[in-house]
Amino acid sequence: MPNNELVEVLDLDQYKYDFRTDDKPVFRTEPGLSEDVVHAISAHKEEPEWMLEFRLKAYQLYLRKPMPTWGADLSDLENVLDQIYYYVRPQDRMKNSWEDVPDNIKTTFDKLGIPEAEQKVLAGVGAQYESEMVYHSLKKEWDEQGVIFDSIEDGLKNHPDIFRKYFASVIPPADNKFAALNSAVWSGGSFVYVPPGVHLDTPLQAYFRVNQERMGQFERTLIIIDEGAQAHYIEGCTAPVYSTESFHSGVIEIVVAKNARFRYTTIQNWSNNMYNLVTQRALVNERGTMEWLDGNLGSKATMKYPSCYLVGEEAHGSILSIAYAGDGQHQDTGGKVVHAASHTTSSIVSKSISKGTGRSSYRGLCKVYEGSTSARSNVECDALLINDTARTDTYPYIEIEEQSANVGHEATVSKIGDEQLFYLMSRGMSEEEAMALIVRGFIEPIAKQLPLEYAVELNRLIEIEMEGSVG
Known about the structure:
Blueprint (H helix, E strand, L loop, with lengths): L5 H5 L16 E2 L6 H10 L4 H16 L12 H7 L4 E2 L13 H10 L1 H8 L2 E6 L2 E7 L1 H4 L4 E4 H7 L1 H7 L10 H9 L4 E5 L9 E6 L6 E2 L2 E6 L4 E9 L7 E3 L2 E6 L4 E10 L3 E11 L4 E10 L2 E4 L2 E4 L5 E10 L4 E10 L5 E10 L4 E10 L7 E10 L5 E10 L5 E10 L2 H9 L4 H17 L8 H6 L10
Parallel strand pairs: 3-7, 6-9, 7-10, 8-11, 9-12, 10-13, 11-14, 12-14, 13-15, 14-16, 14-17, 15-18, 16-19, 17-19, 18-20, 19-21, 20-22, 21-23, 22-24
Antiparallel strand pairs: 1-2, 3-4, 5-6
């Protein structure tokens, strides 16, 4: 079987979420971005004056900051940004009962398996449709222990002190152009607070769905894991395929307190007309642990680099990243670790698969500041090319200011070779089985970390985990 048929065997190019719902939002702004649009978003959310001022300052920062000239090709993005809707309100208010969600929206999430996952294995669920969270729930046992799992808007409204203390403290608007854009027009996302010592033994989950054409989604998620607490949060994203481009630019801020542990799993499978430019960062305090598990399939162009800022002694950060780039796609992904305290440790493991004219890029940073004694970090980048027209690149940045640091980096690029196929086929496998086994082995270090037992849609989105798709 030729190599270019492998994707058909794995079913990687069969985008299963190209369905849309005919609905009419209760409100949406005019296409394009202006100061009036920023005012309209804030007014519809009935925000305090300080948040409107925050948005307007961020908007001015966005206008001043240049478009990135590195990473994915963004030469057409300016035109896209002039045409998209920056705020679409699908319903009057968020629901706490699934039965109260409008039927057209409920049908969409029923198809994605969200209610089933909530009933079986999740501690809580948030569902975002267009620009707003349409549903949020938290199991009673966690609510009674003081866990907060709200929409970001309800976090601002119901918990103003803790919200204002941490909001934009990890990712300020001036961080980059798209963080500034998100800060100006953010809407939807989750606000999570886990009190000291509370361990959530089942995950929280948020699901983000873009349904309309020429849509911009700008969710903002703020998560605080207090001292000695533990939790796991899963995020999934999909959108239907349109002939025009859409845009997604989320900001995820996480604070991991002393002796706390947190895992953030992102599974993004956008349609191939979506620009996906996301800023994700965690601040990790003394003996805290932060784990990113980052999956990227689909989109026209993705630029996303989960980051750990290790600011407390013995803090640890790990990033597991996997990307699949099909025809016409560019996945520019990786991770960043910053060591700003002694005895901190980190690891980045990045896997990518490129097929057809697809391009995957690893872009990562390992920074060790002077005084971060005995810091240790290791980076592994592995790329698999399915055919001769696919491309992969590696852009590692390593900045070491501390003599006692121990940092390692290794990278490999491989193709599915005739020798591998011959060896496995000589042991009785069909060519299809042999190719599937090679790819399964390649992604196994990350695929085994995926919490497939927890969320139904992970099985649907991460088809490269292979089970049931071959044979």
